[in-house]
Amino acid sequence: MSEDQTRPPTAPPSGASVLVALYLEKRADLVRFFTARTGSAAEAEDIVQDMYLKVSRAEGADVSNGVAWLYRLGSNVLLDRVRGAQRSGRRDAEWRGVTAVQVGGEEVEDVPPAEAGIDARRRLAALIAALDQLPPQARRVFTLHKLDGLSHAEVAARLGISRSAVEKHVMAALKRLSALAPANPTGGTSSSAASLGRTGPSEDLGGDAER
Amino acid sequence: MTRPTQDMHDDARRDEAVTWHVRLQSDQAGEADWLAFEAWLGQPGAREAYDAIDGVWAELDLHHDALAEALREPAPMSAPPARAPLRRAGAVRGRPSRRLWFGALGAAAAAAAAAVAVVSILPAVTQPHWTTYSAEKGHNRAIRLADGSSVTLGAGSTLKVSLDGANRRVVMDNAEAVFDVAKDPSHPFLIQAGDHQVRVVGTRFDVLRANGRVVVTVERGIVQVRRTAAGEDQTPAELHAGQQFQRRGSETAVVRTVDPREAMAWREGRLIYRDAELGDVVADLNRYYDKPLRVSPDAARLHFSGVLALDGEDQVVRRLELLMPVRGAAGDGALILQRRPGA
Question: Between B232 and A48, whose confidence is greater?
Answer without folding.
Answer: A48
